[in-house]
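Exercise 7 asks you to align residues with tokens for two separate proteins.
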Amino acid sequence: MASMLLSTLRSCPVSPSWAIYQCLIYPFLSISVRLSVPSVQTKSKKSLARPGMKNIVLVEGVRTPFLLSGTTYVSTLFFILFYLSLRGLLNKTGLPKDAVDYIIYGTVIQEVKTSNVAREAALGAGFSDKIPAHTVTMACISSNQAMTSGVGLIAAGQCDAIVAGGVEFMSDVPIRHSRKMRKTMLSLNKAKTLGAKLGLIGSIRMAHLAPELPAVAEFSTAETMGHSADRLAAAFGVTRLEQDEFALRSHTLAKKAQDAGLLQDVISFKVPGRDIVSKDNGIRPSSMEQMGKLKAAFIKPHGTVTAANSSFLTDGASAVLIMSEEKALAMGYKPKAYLRDFVYVSQDPKDQLLLGPTYGTPKVLERAGLTMNDIDVFEFHEAFAGQIMANLKAMDSDWFGQTYLGRKSKVGAPPMEKFNLWGGSLSLGHPFGATGCRLVTTVAHRLQKEGGQYGLVAACAAGGQGHAMVIEAYPQ
């Protein structure tokens, strides 16, 4: 394994400081993550309610089925997915269309014709035109930002009822002309004489026609996220075997949850001109043998990140109804959970791009006055299996905690018997702007199902950012 790791590092364009960091930290990261799933024990703890502060609750959460891009949603529109998630939320809650104070949606790759897609879809779904709406973007934690922005509006007394959510439509992303071609076309539009127009047309060369395709890459480093995940896995000594095992676990648990009807946030609907969709279509339990045949996807030939242990390009939308507890009860709703403390974190976008959960988890626990042992349900965003395993090893390292987190000891890794038990982004899919709402809704449902009291959501995002939130079960 050591020789393979050295080969990987030689093939990676890593900085000397990163190589030293890898060598220093590797001896501390020999933990073996158990992938078994025993039952969670119900605990009784104090509530996180605070005197003088509003209780903010999750009333309901829904999402469209998350589908592989280029499949059933391919002929629909970005706007339609968002609209359908809003309609699904209205149908499931019976919410009056004028009872919402504000609507916030997250998305990453925006459709240029609906730059404020939250407003356009809200109008299309029949919400009152008196309800303000805006769209936010924060990479993979865009809908997390939408939700917490809503929490802030309620906490500040500005609103009582918020609809938040997110959408991503990778089947039809905007593709631009090259910069030179755009410049020529804009000049052509301003040209006043036939001669000027012909001169501009004559200046066009074949190279100008090459399109600019969107890429899941960091602007600051020009490095794809998969490339970063591969280097991170190598630095933390995460083997290909560990990554494939975790990916298989995700798909197996997701299939089990889907078959048992546990994914109750998924709404069914008929895609215009296509079939009725009622479940995620990326859940595909395989075998270690089949997964082992795949070649490296990013750092070739020695990388360990493959198509099988990475999340896939996904189309989907999600929506949640968030209210003050007082408002929810006055309207006759039975909330699912309290939304408690949350934090956002940011670190080096090159060498620590995907370590958001490691940085966010101890901070949000400290704010809430909790420890890892108090958490009954963990839901972490699975961008890559290597990213998840690297975070778990970093959280379980005293050296990393002391050196990078300013702690006396390690954070501690979440026990796998509490971790992503209904699958995760590797298997369910990851529409960039919509995953946060899925994570929060899943925590609420798992707390109800498993009898736990506290749940923790954590996610990484492009730019080296991250989010973590504590959720408390609503008394049943």
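Second protein for Exercise 7:
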Amino acid sequence: MGTIICQICNCAVDHFEDEKVTTYYAKCVDCQCTEKNEELA
């Protein structure tokens, strides 16, 4: 089982089947985390 985690807000974006436990980091499309990140900068 693998998991894709948003590197900005740490929410789980997606899960996928894999032979071992794997975590990948990406950016969300659905949430407003990019706007929050720009406000903090």
